[in-house]
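Today's session is about reading a structure prediction critically. Students often jump straight to the picture, but the first step is always the sequence itself: look for stretches that repeat, for charged clusters, for runs of hydrophobic residues. Only then move on to the predicted structure, which in these notes is written as discrete structure tokens rather than atom positions. Here is the chain we will use throughout the hour.
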Amino acid sequence: MKIAIGNDHTAVEMKTAVKAHLEEKGIQVTDLGTNETGSCDYPVYGEKVARAVAEGQADLGIAICGTGLGISLAANKVKGIRACVCSEPYTAKMSRLHNNCNMLCFGARVVGVEMAKMIVDTWLDTEFEGGRHQRRVDMIMEIEGR
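Below is the predicted structure for this chain, in token form.
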């Protein structure tokens, strides 16, 4: 599995910890930045990760900003992306189980490193249930196409 990861200036330390956690699990990680703590624009990094996923350069994506909201909004503008913001494991589980989300976002100012690892692990360990949920995911993708 290959995961693209990106972040803004608020989440450099969080990204570094999550990246190390993923690599310890044997997951290949493509770091799309930033590694700078000076102010930068989260939409740039949300789009970078989203494009890597949408274009097949990564299987899944993780994007982190202060709250997870701004970077998820940018990511969701890329066709084919279903980015979710999760601040706890249950939402992460449901985002995969029912929505087949291909990007996970969270906030470095909202969750701590250990909670972030639990969110990531739950998200990665959950498979899409399909069935009636596939019809709903298809409906979401149809909206995107209009």
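Discussion point for the tutorial: Residues 1 and 27 are 6 Å apart (CA to CA).
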